[in-house]
């Protein structure tokens, strides 16, 4: 294995670099720290693919990484046989800088390896890519996207034939293939335009949109609720310069919404995201233009989708007329309860309904499900794990899932997508908001009613950011020390159990290992506290940070807030 300086020189010496790429690398010749940051190791290929900043270097996203990864992906597809190559791959991209270039480069490599390619004619939502894999019966899918990351990032998100993100064995095979091949000489490629002309690559577009939208609209449960208030109900929508700009407003229109006001400045497709620091619907500050417009048009609801339109955030008016955020956990609970009640009312509830969320999401989801006779399970973070659980239920004939979500503003319904889907979720949120509007309630008032019905819960996520090479080492040390020397108390509250999801062990404090978790294999530490709250620690799989999840339940809003404050202080000390 080369040292980072040897790898740097290998790149400088490669004839594959363009003149501008060589100049970029040559300019950092005296900056050992920057060289180390770019060349200390490759980007790690996992079940979510790759994600990194767009620079020339081994630990970054660039055209050389795209070709290298795509050749390894092509080898894995080819290993499945000729039928797999013929079924081929569907390729998409979002609004990010270099997105189209990377998508076409990947398509050319796949075509050169005899793998049939369908590629979208322009940017498309991630859920539509998941849909298209299933719709066309493709072997695999690829989306060039970095989701909600800042503008400097791009990514390489990979899917298998079920429309879910890549299974671990295939991700491992791609990573192994990349490790044993040279980045500059390993790949086959061809002329993209010639491959289109020869029928090796097919460009797809509006016909796939229509097929996808038909499925999306099929998830509407009670369109009558929309028609009842359509003349007065108003929605402001922002795609944050990304993929939702077309299909989300169209879905709302087809649902029957007459007054949808897109934020004009953010309907402009632009991967530099000029109007926001971060195009993440989890960050309320990004909604400032939407709030300004909402006040002008007296909107009842604000919806915002991230650049690849798989996450959705919402804001509604509070009792003072100000627009406030509905968190991902809160929206998950609102949608879960609404889907249950609406399906019961319309007679569309399956005989054995099931719901799920990630284990770092609100505990209120279990309470809502169990109170309504809906089977509930949790999974690791990531919709690939939820997709696996849905497939397992289908194979066993046990439960029919009606909803799945995670705290980071991702929601999944229907059998046509195996990933979070902001297009369908936006449509359902609008339907639900209209239904409550007819009852004289905002979504915030509806949430308060659910607390009265099911009990009080509150959640908070903290990001302990640890950038760079030193950060990776610091993240690993934090997890190691917390695992080997677990706290006896957190925020003054006694820890009663620790679940270590890496090896699946359950520890009772003072007794040691006593049981096994139902699933294992992820670097997650889950602490159960004596007051019924939970404190969860895991390193992010896509960003340089350790995430801490605080899940509180209590006798009132104030009680939950006080608990979160205590646990926040403890968590912040972990990152120092």
Notable characteristics:
alpha/beta; six-stranded mixed β-sheet; 23 strands
Tell me the layout of helices and strands.
Layout: H1 4-13, H2 19-26, H3 32-39, E1 50-53, H4 63-78, H5 82-87, E2 89-93, H6 99-112, E3 117-120, H7 126-135, E4 140-144, E5 153-160, H8 168-179, H9 192-197, E6 201-204, H10 206-217, H11 223-229, E7 234-238, H12 244-255, E8 259-262, H13 288-297, E9 301-305, E10 312-317, E11 323-326, H14 328-346, E12 353-358, H15 364-371, E13 375-379, H16 383-396, E14 400-406, E15 410-412, H17 422-438, H18 443-454, E16 456-465, H19 468-484, E17 489-490, E18 493-500, E19 505-508, E20 512-516, E21 525-529, E22 534-539, E23 545-554, H20 557-574
Helix pairs in contact: 1-3, 4-6, 4-8, 7-10, 10-12, 11-17, 12-17, 14-15, 14-18
Explained architecture:
- With 576 residues, this protein is of the alpha/beta class.
- The chain is built from 20 helices and 23 strands.
- Strands 16, 17, 18, 19, 20, 21, 22 and 23 form an 8-stranded antiparallel β-sheet that branches.
- The relative contact order is 0.09.
- The model has no long low-confidence stretch (mean pLDDT 96).
